[in-house]
Hints:
The chain is built from nine helices and no strands. The protein is mainly alpha-helical. The protein is globular and about 60 Å long. It folds into two domains: 26-138; 140-227.
Amino acid sequence: MKTIKYKISGLVLCFLMLVPALKAVELDSKSRDPKYVETIVARSQKIVDKLKLADANVSRNVLNIVANRYFTLNDIFSKRDSSVNRIKRSELKGEARNSALTASQNEKEAALYRSHFAFAGDLSLYLNESQIEAVKDGITFGVVKVTYDATVEMIPSLKDDEKVQILAWLKEGREFALDAETSEKKHEAFGKFKGRINNYLSKQGYDLIKEREGWYARNKARDEAKKK
């Protein structure tokens, strides 16, 4: 039995020796406005700090991955804007103009699709699933937790399967928000799924107006009790 263990350990050791060490992730800051880079790095640092990573190298690589994601999104949408403006200034008209605009939009969507999964893949080299979730929440302002907690508090009688469905839709909305170009667009992405959740709850028999009024009343009573 010991011999088998030694052989297995030896195989694992050989495998690890064959796996190349992960290269340091470089910050994609070349040819960018230094002030813009500083802003993005500071924003990314706040997200990474919440992970409380013990390894300085891992922390730096994750920081650069997050910052590079912002840079990538900026590049994708800047390219889209340039393309659209060029088409609008051109002599294209009618169907030709519409086709060109559609092609520009499709190119943007394809780039977003590729970068979306590349981002998660890059993070997975350094973080576990819960940490990746935390990064996503950081980028999307924690809307998933805030909305979920508020909904559960507003409707205390929610069933477990209903809570699961609500959380699933909020996380789906977060995936779209991750690709949005501005904070406003990120909230708009969530808005579509919040509407879906409200329709779902109404079909489940909940009177959302009464539930909301009851929630406000409970909060008011709690606040007044604290003042006494």
